[in-house]
Amino acid sequence: MNIIELITTRRSIKQFKPDAVSEELLYSWLEAASYAPNHRMNEPWELLAVGPETRAKLKHKTDFGNAPVVLALLSKSAATPFERDENVIAAACFAQNLLLAAHEAGAGAYWASLGALPHNREILCVPEGYDVIGVFGIGYPAEVPAAKPRTPIRTKITQLH
Fold first, then answer.
1. Long-range contacts of 116-123 (CB under 8 A, 24+ apart)
2. Does residue 18 contact residue 66 with C-beta atoms inside 8 Å?
3. 136 closest CA partner among 33, 47, 40
4. How far is CA 56 from CA 20, 40, 50, 67, in A?
5. Tens digits of residue pLDDT in 8-59
6. Strand partners, 112
7. pLDDT digit string (tens) for 87-116?
8. Is 112 helix (H, G, I), strand (E, B) or coil?
9. Which of 71, 84, 137, 152 is most buried per CB count within 10 Å?
10. Residues 91/127, Cβ–Cβ less than 8 Å
11. What is the pLDDT of residues 121-142, one digit of tens each?
């Protein structure tokens, strides 16, 4: 699959098969994700492997679609608001790389924002000053939803003179 097909066919997966994701494969996706652009090569992302007890405490409405793997992606703290923004942007690029690597291998993910809520930050033991980019359910899709319509990109471009 070429990169354009990979990007345009990736979907948010809501329900997963019970099939395990091999640790080796998961680490290969995470390694690939770590090639995300990041300022001064500071690699601001950190990951939390969310086990069953913590997962239950998060009380996600579908338990992350019964995904066999749940990870929380954090962006480390920064000295200035500008550096914080750079870290968050780089960590979001890491997330996109992870989603694409999983998709290319026939797996998928669900990106939930619930980790940013104060009580969930506490459950996840997120250090002060860190941002929660997302909590990801990862596994093999039980079904792949159809693409939702997108706004034509030409309507999003403003010409500056």
1. 120/58, 123/54, 123/57, 123/58
2. yes
3. 47
4. 19, 37, 10, 13
5. 999 999 999 999 999 999 999 999 999 999 999 999 999 999 999 999 999 9
6. 135
7. 999 999 999 999 999 999 999 999 999 999
8. strand
9. 137
10. no
11. 999 999 999 999 999 999 999 9
